[in-house]
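Translate sequence into C-alpha cells.
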Amino acid sequence: MAKDLFGICPFVTSQKILQGKWAILVLHELSQGTRRFNELERGLQITHATLSSQLKSLEREGIVRRTVYPEVPPRVEYSLTEIGRKFAPVLESIRAWGTDYIDYLHVNRPKVG
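Result follows.
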C-alpha cells in the first residue's frame, strides 16, 4: 500500500528517493561540491559497485547530475541538481540531530572497558 503513495505522500516519496544505506552520505558529499567518481569512492570508503548503484539510483530520480566530458580519458563528474541542492537544509537538520544524539549517547550509555 505505501508504495502506491509514491508521488502523493511526502514521507513515502522521500523514503523511496533516499533508499539505500549510502544515499544520505552521497548527498552530503555532493552538497560540498562537484566530485569525480574516484573522489566519492575514496571519501566515502565505499565499494565501486555500491557507489555506482547509489549514484545511478539518485541520477534516475533526478537528484544527482552525471556530466561526461568528451576527453581522453573521459572525465565524469557528479553534482546535485537543483532539486538535489534543496536537500541541504535537511542535511543540516540531520547533522544537528546526529550531534545531539551523540551527546545523548555520551551521557546515557555506560562506558565499556
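Note: Strands lie at 35-36, 64-69, 75-80.
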